[in-house]
Amino acid sequence: MTLAKTLKTALFGLLTLGAIHGVAAAQANAPLLPKVPPGTVLTIGDPTTQKALELSGLIKELTFEVKWANISGGPQTSEAFRARALDVGSVAEIPSIFANWNNLPVRNIAYRERRDPIANPIYRFGIAPGAEVKTLADFRGKRIAFSPGQAQGTLVLRAIHAAGLKKSDVTLVELPSTGDVYPKALASKQVDIAPLGGVNIRRYIAQYGPDGATLVEHGLRDDPGHLYAPQWVLDDPAKAAALAEYVGLWARATEWVNENPETWIKEYYVGQQGLSREDGQYLVKLTGEQVVPDSWSDVKKRHQETIDLLAEELGYKPYDVETIFDNRFEKLGAAALAKSQ
C-alpha cells in the first residue's frame, strides 16, 4: 500500500470514528420522548427493584413490556451487554468506569446513595485473627485481598491513599470478591485484610471473633448505586423513553423499601434470598435510608476522583466523567418522588 493510500485510509478511519462519536453525542442530547412508543420492550437486570416493584404494586404502572433478567453485579451485567442480551443493569460505582476502559460504551442513567454513608457503609474491613490492625495506617506491610475492576478493589486503593500510603507499602493479593471467598481467606490467614460486605460482615465476626477476628471502619464513602445502559440502547428513542419511565419507578421503589422495612425483610431477605430474619434486620440497619438526589454535580466530582485514582494506580488513561453520564436522566428520579408525594 502506498503512503498516500495509507494516510487516506487512516484519515477515513478517524473521520468515521468522529462521526460515530458525534452521533452518540447527538443522541445523548436528544430530548426524551414524552411517552413510550407501543411495542417497546426492555430487558432489565435489576432483581432487587423487580421485587420492590412487585411488592409495592408499582409494577402495574409500567407501560412497556419488560423481560426481567436475574443478572446483577458488574461482570455479569457487562457480559450481558456485550451479548446484546440486556438493556439496563443495576450496579455500584465501578462497572461503568471500567466498561469504557474495555471498549464497552455505557452511561449511568440513575443514581442513589445512603443518607448517612459514613454511619452506613456498604463495606467494612475484616481483619484476620492475630493481625495487628486497628486503623487504616496499620495497613502498611499487610496482605490485602484485592479485586481490580470491582467496588471492593477500589475501596482498598482509596483506603491506602487515605492512610497516606502507597500501593508499594502493602501487598495486594488478587482474589475474587464473590461468596465467602474473603471471609475464608481471612480465617485461613491467606490475607491480613479484606473488605467485607452484607451478611459476611456479621457472619465473619460471629464465626471467627472468638479466634481474634475484628473489623476496622474505613470512614470513606462507598455507597453509590447506579442504573446504567449501553450507548446503543440509549441511542434508540423508544428504549430511551422506556428507560426514563423505569428510572422514575426505580426511585419510587427505593422510597418504598425505605418506608416498609418489615415487609422488605420478610418478603425479600427471608422469602426470596433465604436469609434469616436476624440477617435481614442486620442488612436493613446496615443500609439505612437510601436517597435519590436531584443533582449529579457532587456525584460526578466523586466519580472523576475515582477515575483519576484508578487510572493512576492501575495504568489506565483517565477520561472526562461526562463520558459515562447521560444528563437527560439526571432529574427524573427525584422528580418522580416529588410527584408521588
UniProtKB/TrEMBL annotation:
Residues 118-202 form the SsuA/THI5-like domain. Keywords: Signal. Residues 1-28 form the signal peptide. Pfam families: NMT1. It comes from the Bacteria. SUPFAM superfamilies: Periplasmic binding protein-like II. Gene3D superfamilies: Periplasmic binding protein-like II. The keyword Signal applies. InterPro entries: SsuA/THI5. This is Sulfonate transport system substrate-binding protein. It comes from Xaviernesmea oryzae.
